Amino acid sequence: MGSVADNLARIEERIQAACASCGRAREDVTLVCVSKTFPREAVQEAFIAGARHFGESRWQEAEPKVAAGPVGATWHFIGKLQSNKVKKVGQAFHLIHTIDSISQLAEFRKLDHVVDVMVEVNCANEEQKAGISPKSLDSFLEDVLQCEKVRFKGLMTVGPLVSDPDQSRVHFRLLAELGKKAGAPFLSMGMSNDFEVAIQEGATHIRVGSAIFGSRF
Ligand SMILES: *Cc1c(COP(=O)(O)O)cnc(C)c1O
Question: What is the number of structural domains in the chain?
């Protein structure tokens, strides 16, 4: 792995190539740099290299990083959101990608401000995977739209682990179809191993960690 700046430059080239391959505008895709498990210095390094969007998945870990984070950074919550963390996460983060339960919505109702959210969909119906199943999505979205403290922005999915990125395409395509039906402007899909396919299928937010910051293990 090169430096964070080098890695970002390489990812940027790949994003541009993926956009060109399907006739999309580069500005329509937001790169969310997933900094989970990496120190705030890594966030700083990426920010200096031009990154502005950062993703974290655990409140305890994220709190000091968000607090110390560079002014002008936008924070995305992409992990499992426990109901008892809704208040803190809702205040600190700009966009929450992982809404998937009625109990979360009940906690949002107690807030005194409105939070931008996406609904997580378990596109491949994997057991033990977070997210709403595609067949339950319509009914869950009714609950989301009735919650006056959340602003529905889109759908998010974490694809199954695949060896060939093209195997993710069917799941991304399904999310895009569901998003279109729901009138969702945002689609959060694609990670280090399959973000190009996600862009081709309509991703507006790609979540890239290890390809920028290095291996977490
Ligand atoms: C960790 C994580 C990512 C980033 O994964 P990489 O494979 O390191 O790019 C993206 N989305 C979610 C929800 C994650 O938890």
Answer: 1
pLDDT in tens, 7-34: 999 999 999 999 999 999 999 999 999 9
What CATH number should be reported for the domain holding residue 33? 3.20.20.10
CA torsion sign, 179 to 180 to 186 to 189? positive
**What are the structure tokens assigned to 214, written together?**
């290095």
| Ligand 1 center–CA 158 separation, angstroms | 8
**What is the separation of C-alpha 176 from the centre of its chain, rounded to a whole number of angstroms?**
14
CA atoms within 13 A on the CB side of 199: 29
Query: Which residue's alpha carbon is nearest to atom 12 within ligand 1?
Result: 78
For residue 181, the Cα-to-chain-centroid distance in whole angstroms is 20
**Taking the complete model, does pTM exceed 0.70, yes or no?**
yes
Ligand 1 atom at minimum distance from 192 CA: 9
Ligand 1 centroid distance, CA of 84 (Å): 23
Q: How far apart are CA 103 and CA 68, in angstroms?
A: 30
Q: Which atom of ligand 1 is nearest to the CA of 191?
A: 9
Domain that holds residue 116: 4-213
